[in-house]
């Protein structure tokens, strides 16, 4: 099998997972597709780790170092978009779509696992590679549950990547906890006997107002988001007896997220008290912040620089230019000349090759990812996490533009580049016991006396949310 044939296998798998577009804990076809392929390649498959039906691991080799490669394949709800369409267009309105590129993420990581396996066979070096098919990164905390069940015990290192519009190190991510607040009141006729009602919707509204006032009195890098899961119904003449909010609380450290949790739950209790309703709340998902060791960052930086970089065609640049987000146009939105300026700037970007960011971000900078359950793994074992350009310049994750580009040559080239980077990093670890010792020592130095404690209550199970 030549290189083109080897890479084509993974492009086909990635495109199939893009088509499946399965959301958290429903990735049955996606996980089975990957597990079956890796089993055919000679990996030993373990299904349902941590009791999660859509998770699996695939291992090859023996001895140390043991390197875990973290894959994902879940899609986002209501993000369906026609492939390669440069405007909002859906073949299946309301269906899920890969707005975070996890079809590429998991498949590229799996490609790296196969490259490592082939290399270990050729060199006969000691070492084990384990690919982890991890479900439910999008809100479901898949790796946090896998961590809690001990699935990553025994690893020496973990490597991961994420598609983006830039290539560089990911050195930080916010801790994140998701909490559901259920308010229960008393229904009544809103005109005839409103005094008999106790509005659960009013309680939700007052909670949101309270949290919005709270923003002034928390750290500036804290984040608090909310959405209605139940808005009390669509009949304005009935006092709503039930309403439900989902809150996501984020901060750079898990310890501060715990403080936010206490303050926000107090606000919820106050809202219930003010409205004569009752409130119950439960944590359904939680991610730790990312622990990154400089020595591991140095390794990943070297791997990005040494791995063979993609070769982009003029067509790649032209297509990417159509998807570019041009912030310069924001002030012109809706004006008569916006379209002509838009077209001119996109043509210039294509000809200047700026529609694809092919540069590696300097080592002293980090790419901001938001939150990821890779953070939980990073508190167990030294973890290298990078972003690789697989979409047009300026495109943001969780948008239809990302879904549309998920099958493009640019996406495939980014995926293969990511696989080569992870492979290059792994080769260094397998080949140098001194490097392994250096990274482990630096990791322990950074970690210090801090210990990992999952914010997930023991009562919460995978798939509860």
Name some characteristics of this structure:
465 residues; alpha/beta; Alpha-Beta Plaits; 4-stranded antiparallel β-sheet; 11 strands; globular
Q: Could you provide a short overview of the structure?
A:
The protein is built from 13 helices and eleven strands. The protein has 465 residues and is an alpha/beta fold. The protein is globular and about 80 Å long.
Describe this structure in words.
The protein has 465 residues and is of the alpha/beta class. It has 2 domains: 3-172 and 290-447, Aminopeptidase (3-Layer(aba) Sandwich); 175-287, Alpha-Beta Plaits (2-Layer Sandwich), CATH 3.30.70.360. The protein is 39% helix and 17% strand. It has helices at residues 3-20, 28-40, 102-123, 142-148, 200-214, 254-275, 294-306, 314-323, 338-351, 374-378, 400-404, 409-431, 433-447, and strands at residues 44-47, 56-62, 66-72, 127-134, 157-164, 168-169, 175-184, 223-230, 242-251, 278-287, 383-389. A hairpin with an 8-residue loop joins strand 1 and strand 2 (56-62). Helix 1 packs antiparallel against helix 3 (102-123) and helix 7 (294-306) packs across helix 12 (409-431). The chain is globular. The relative contact order is 0.18.
